[in-house]
What does this fold into?
Amino acid sequence: MNGVAADQETLLRVADLKVHFQQKKPHPLAAAPVVHAVDGVSFEVRRGTTFGLVGESGSGKTTTALAVIRLVHITAGQVKLGEIDIGALEGSELRRQRRHMQIIFQDPYSSLNPRVRAGAIVREPLEQLGMGDRAGRDERVAELFRHVGLRPEQQALFPHQFSGGQRQRIGVARALATNPELIVCDEPVSALDVAIQAQILNLLRGLQEEFGLTYLFISHDLGVVQYMCDEIAVMYLGQIVEQADRISLFTEALHPYTWALLSAVPSADPEVRDKRDRIRLVGDPPSPIDPPPGCRFASRCPFAQAQCTSETPALRQIRDGHTVACHLVSDDGVTPMRRSAG
Amino acid sequence: MTTEPTPVLEVRALETCFFTDAGTVGAVDGLTFSIRKGDTLALVGESGCGKSVTALSILRLVPDPPGRIAGGEIVFEGRDLLRLSSREMRRIRGNAISMVFQDPMTSLNPVFTIGDQISEAIQTHESVPRRTAWRRSVELLELVRMPDPHRRVHDYPHRLSGGMRQRVMMAMAVACGPKILIADEPTTALDVTIQAQVLTLLDRLKREFGMTVLLITHDLGVVAEWANRVVVMYAGRKVEDAPVDEMLTNPKHPYTRGLIACVPHLQAVPSAERPPLTEVPGVVPSIVELGRGGCPFAPRCAQAMARCREQMPPPTAVVEGHQAACWLLEEATEA
It folds into this structure.
């Protein structure tokens, strides 16, 4: 980690965030099942950096991000964006603060209204939040189109007249419109063709540099995460199991789940293939309705011991900025993987 | 390599067209390739390059209308599949050549149990009593490592996870011991950990049944680990054809190079510097727009020359078993 980055102020603080969803009762006398989508997540994001959330589907990464920008209800915990207590905002005050936090959605085909012209889509947040006058908005929208690599005259077109990559550019322009501090990028390239992904990733990085944006970046593609993120949290069944900066996470992964994820990525690079020890996970993650006691990963962990199924491991700091929640990792960072190998 | 094993499937000058309001679209345009027995051949390219239409053409499942196979030959075991009657073709489909589709969520019928659906695949091709077919279904579920197969055989698809559904699809596909299995993006809808399970299974089934696999994918990591030959397609045409290692280390076509360079590959030790990714500018042309003559990739190619816009480059041999269709290769050999 370089010194400048370490000095940057913290923009986003999430403390013990919980998001639970009540399901329908299976019959009138039964208790409603509760889905523990996010169950005690804490992290901090420094201004101008990209924080990655990775994990399988159902791990709670998207719900975490949606809770941070208050698109789902927060059950418990605290979310602070700078000095603003996001979790405590209500009504018009919440609405006013939304200009500071925006989102880029996964699917540029379904996240743009097909009946609305591109220019109006980008202008919408400005109007909703009452920013600028008519002329100012015109100018701002044209400027945004240029920032994301579209031509201002394309404002008059409808979404279907754009390609997938261009549609995602419209999505980026819409997110940028209100000059937000935090942008949630929820799988921004996974619906795009491989050759188009690079265009959008380069765009996002360029905009970050230009405007000092902070990204909360969600992706299941670890290659993309490694390229984009400065700090990464690995989630499993609603909890963070490991968190580190990008170099440490990929070179010295501590948690067996992180290892399994990394070893599952098919790689075109022979060096990656030779270096890794394959851990093949069997089965699917357990249901978040009744998370198992102890470590939630224990049922799929090849190293699990009796302690793992009874005691919940806490997140511990092993090295500077590198935390892990696993009983089997020793305080000096010896992992169960290394123990079994040597 | 002196003794070339005979190909199990040869596609020659295949042309599949779609007749739309906007005009006739050549989705597959003079495609030629062959698969040797026991190989896993990957068909690679962006969406809209004609990969899936190629797979559907091999099984003659192209919806007609609007589509039609307009020309070429598909030779399987000495017979041209395009000349078979639909009755003969039905005997091949799901039996000698079967297919696993991309989306396991929508390819299973929600109102039948998975046991019913696997049994149906068996009974379509073999006259066995229902009870035998059902017993074989349980065995097939065991074979694809479905947890608790005796209970799961009675389940409806909605009770299964994505990975389990893809296992059911594979059980159905191998039910009749096919010679060729076509897998169309079999893991695109799945998480990486589940993807690894499904691909390991595919590889094991391939060895156990002595199958040949045609794998359609856009993920070069998957190609590198699971295939041994690659055909890169662009706008309905083959642009490069090579063994996997050769393609990854010595790609010749600018499109192949672009595909390899534009994805951030997972590095064992992430580099501290992160230079911008190489972009392939523009998008796959809609094939209606595509003018005849000239290389279809020329409008997106950084190295395009005047000749590229006028004449279609022929496949040129790079080394034994490695072909690419690009005028740059010709220039290199002439120089």
Q: What stands out?
A: Chain B touches chain A through 47 residues (CB under 8 Å).
